[in-house]
Amino acid sequence: MAEPDFAAPPDPIVGNQSKTGLVALAKKITREAEKLEAYMRENNLPMPSFDVDALADFPKLPEHVAQSRREIIYSTKELAQLAHGPRESLRWGVWEFLDVLAVQVINHFGIAKLFPTSSTITLAELQAKTSLDATNLARLLRLVMTKGIFREPAPGIIAHTAASRLLAEDGDLEAWVGFNAEDTFPAAAHVLEALKTHPEATSLARSGFCLAFDTVDKEPMFVTLGRDPARARRMGRAMASLTGGEGYEVSHFVNANNNGLVDVDAAGGTFVDVGGSHGFVCVDLAVRYKNIQFVCQDLPKTVESAPKPVCADPQAAARITFLAHDFFTEQVTKGADVYYLRWIIHNYSTPYAVRILRNLIPALKPGARVIINDHCLREPGRENPHDEAVMRRMDIVMLALLNAQERTEAEFRELFRTASDGFVFKGVTRPDGCRMSIIEALWQPKNGSVAKKVSDQTL
Ligand SMILES: C[S@@+](CC[C@H](N)C(=O)[O-])C[C@H]1O[C@@H](n2cnc3c(N)ncnc32)[C@H](O)[C@@H]1O
Predict the structure, then answer these.
(1) What is the H or E stretch that residue 121 is in?
(2) 243 CA distance to ligand 1 middle (Å)
(3) Which SUPFAM superfamilies match (predicted)?
(4) Which residues are CB-contacts of 129 (< 8 A; sequence separation ≥ 6)?
(5) Which of 192, 231, 239, 259 is deepest in the core (most CB within 10 A)?
(6) Distances (CA, A) of 441 to 132, 218, 275, 397
């Protein structure tokens, strides 16, 4: 296993730069913007813009240019905060939920799809196509315009921007916005009440989500969404949008030098993707590693709805088996080389997460690897500021939806230790450019380790 990457702070730390003054910060932004523009020009790439035809994403940039782009993102934010001053930053920062509210309504009513991206529409014509009244449509549109979503080139004339075009054309992104605005946002608004009534905040059925949707002590979020096909589909597409986004691509794990799969491949070993959804990680791995057998486990409905065949490559598809398995019951695929949990453990508070790990134990052979692929939180200020904000927000999303959490390396170590002293914690690595870490433990049972298995099932 490679050295954990926690040794050096990877990027400038927010707050430190302000000591050099506003002008120095502004000059730095100018320098980095010049480098980014020069690269775009030299490579005949369009300049970033809000125009409807602008590129929706930056192309893959060489690392030094990507670094310039990141510097612009952190430093402009810091410069703006300094220019506002702390009182005004707080005063107006706490209003950002209103932007989410406006995006929620605009996205829910599919406003972006109501006129072609290449033309404009009058507010009156647009209003005639929705059940929103003219005043409310106009006021919500004009708020989202302040975020670069739609524009009003002349009074009462609405035009698309690059962002509104994405809401019209990218169904996964529309689902991401919808899931977060319509499921996560109400859940977040109920976290305070949840924490007051259930301060321990561990139960899946006592989260902000449950308070928001009147399911306290009845059912967890996954059950609520699973019962409503449209909401379940939206969450699935939202997750697909996240996985396709910068820093979350499956390729980071598939191509990681330290994922240890070269040896598993050489031995023709078995890889179990626990809670593997429709098997997209298995597919990418199977294309790359030609001898590994894959078992993709998920709940029955998910397994039933997996694509058949799972991929176009028959050699890969033939090595992927789907299996309905509930990870809150004893693991049924015995003796595999790797048990992999991607975006699973962060969905659960510690009592549940320990139970998931303990349920693996009866299946584990000595030397079996358990790999958790989740965020691993660094010490405050050790992450670049944008990544830190994304990861800490995700941590709070997990609280709001599921009373769950992102974890630090120490918390992962403790999770394995609590599950069994047969787990030997190997450490955490993080591929370059990726927000997710590879957290690994080996099963090396001591006398009595197995006897402790699944002994504590109370939650
Ligand atoms: C956040 S998704 C992660 C999916 C996939 N591992 C990924 O990386 O995108 C959680 C997955 O766990 C599955 N799941 C939820 N509860 C489960 C359970 N009790 N047993 C097995 N799978 C479960 C869900 O159906 C879903 O596919």
Answers:
(1) strand 121-122
(2) 14
(3) S-adenosyl-L-methionine-dependent methyltransferases, Winged helix' DNA-binding domain
(4) 114, 115
(5) 259
(6) 54, 34, 18, 26
373 exposure class (CB count in 10 Å sphere: 0-12, 13-18, 19+): buried
CB atoms within 10 A of CB 393: 12
Cα separation, 44 vs 39, in Å, equals: 9
> Three-class SS of residue 117?
coil
Amino acid at 127: Q
Joined tokens for residue 132? 């929103």
Verify cis geometry, omega within 30 degrees of 0, for the bond prior to 351: no
Q: Quick check: CB of 328 below 6 Å from ligand 1?
A: yes
CA distance linking residue 336 with residue 328, whole number of Å: 18
Task: Tell me whether 0.95 is exceeded by the ipTM.
Answer: yes
Which region, left, alpha or beta, applies to residue 59 given φ > 0 means left and ψ of -120 to 50 means alpha? Answer: beta
CB atoms within 10 A of CB 76: 15
- For the chain, how far is it from start to end, CA to CA, in angstroms? 34
- 346 a catalytic residue: yes
Q: Residue 447 has what pLDDT?
A: 78
Which element (helix H / strand E) includes 335?
none
Does residue 36 register a pLDDT over 80?
yes
Give residue 301 CA to ligand 1 midpoint distance, Å: 11
Selected residue with higher pLDDT from 141 and 301: 141
- Using the atom order of ligand 1, give the atom closest to the CA of residue 276: 6
Q: For residues 34 and 42, is the Cβ–Cβ distance under 8 A? A: no
**Mean of pLDDT over the chain:** 92
The residue contributing the CA closest to ligand 1 atom 3 is 343
Task: For residue 106, give every residue at least 6 positions away whose Cβ sits within 8 Å of its Cβ, in sequence order, or none.
Answer: 112, 140, 141, 144, 149, 167
